[in-house]
Amino acid sequence: MLRSVAAEVITPRFRNLSDDQIFEKKPGDYVTVADRESEVEITKALREAYPDALIVGEEATFKDPSLPDGLLEADHAFTIDPIDGTGNYVRGSDKHAVMLAELKNGQLSRSWIWLPMFRKAYVAERGNGVFLNGQRLSPIERTGVALGGTSRKNLQGYDAEGKLEPTTTTNNCAGVDYADLLEGSIDYFLYTSPKPWDHLPGQLMLQEIGGEILKMDGSPYDASGDASIIFSGSNVERLQQIIDAWKPNLDK
Question: Can you tell me which residues bind Mg(2+) (predicted)?
Fold first, then answer.
């Protein structure tokens, strides 16, 4: 479904948007006609297949901010990010994604990330692993000083007095960030003000290879979205060490 929506709605408009098809929800936070139309199409398909499910889309939440409040309590729910990395998409960068997560009784059950310009499909099911274009991904065994990224410019360059590699940036697209984590090219990402549609799809995938998304207190991120800072990494033990190295800087 994500592939077909991307092929029909998103990719035809890539590098082909007119000014009147691009809007700002707030300064620097873009939305396009492709975001809105793709969310409508994905929502329609989900409602036809699962009429009783709660569906929480990024653009629907902009209109009704209370929508995510039901994610933990719902018997069945989905989150939709119709175009993750919309700013990249507007600027003509290949680094954008379409993402979907399914929850049952507040627990992640399945998730999907489609990177249309890279032709990469990541699919996870709880207890059954995570797959890239049909090939099972294995746990990541990175060693040495941990390398991470954040979009917060005031935090970039932090190295915890040599305990970490100097912190770099993100891809400005969580879907591509999670692809980097799943394929082992980086150890972690630090995010602020996380939204469930940005992180729940990648969280299940990380869990299936021994990783996690953790809050500052070491507890897992969940669908409540109750966190101001999160760390995403492909190895839980290593991720906790990374958080410990960050605490002196973030506790200031």
Answer: 58, 81, 83-84, 198
Where helices occur in the chain by DSSP H, the ranges are: 2-5, 33-49, 58-63, 86-91, 174-183, 196-207, 236-250
Indicate the annotated binding residues for Mg(2+).
Answer: 58, 81, 83-84, 198
| Domain residue extents for the chain | 1-136, 146-247
∠ CA 127-222-80, nearest 5°, is 85
Sign (positive/negative) of CA torsion 59, 65, 66, 72? positive
State the amino acid at position 251 in one-letter form.
Answer: D
In 3-state terms, what secondary structure has residue 147?
Answer: coil
CB atoms near residue 222 (< 10 Å): 19
76: three-class secondary structure by DSSP: strand
Mark the ranges of the chain whose per-residue pLDDT is less than 70. Answer: 252
Select the CATH number that applies to the domain covering 146-247 from these four: 3.20.20.140, 3.90.25.10, 3.40.190.80, 3.50.50.60.
3.40.190.80
pLDDT of 226 reads 85
Please, is 252 exposed, middle or buried when counting C-beta atoms within 10 Å of its C-beta (0-12, 13-18, 19+)?
exposed
CATH architecture of 1-136: 2-Layer Sandwich (3.30)
